[in-house]
Design brief:
113 residues, mainly beta, 4-stranded antiparallel sheet, 4 strands, 9% helix, extended
Length: 113
């Protein structure tokens, strides 16, 4: 709830020592269908969240798709290296990037007018 993960999100605890927690989340983004070979049915997004235990529950520190400790230790320098050093980056397929639209190429062909 603290990270506003969508309903039906898959949660995978990567590392936890009782005070610090690393959770990977993923959720489907395509239509609901039974054909798992159809790419539209298997498209997913995902995030990795780092948390610290507080009296009120797990408090989110930072979200990232990167591996290692850099992002979390920038935000919370006392986060234990032992819980993040071996983390590999999340698959780029979980974080698609779309280049900005480019200008139309000029071909040097005069436009009739």
């Amino acid at each position: 709830m603290a990270v506003d993960a969508p309903e039906h999100t898959y949660r995978d605890s990567e590392k936890c020592d009782g005070k610090w927690l690393v959770l990977d989340f993923s959720w489907r983004t395509g239509p609901a269908c039974s054909d798992s070979t159809d790419p539209a049915c298997s498209s997913r997004l995902g995030d990795r969240w780092f948390f610290q235990a507080k009296k009120t529950g797990w408090e989110p520190i930072v979200r990232t798709s990167a591996g290692g400790c850099r992002d979390v230790q920038r935000k919370e320098p006392t986060f234990p290296t032992s819980l993040c050093a071996s983390l590999v980056p999340l698959s780029p397929s979980l974080h698609p990037s779309y280049p900005p639209p480019s200008a139309s190429p000029t071909t040097g062909v005069p436009v009739a007018g």
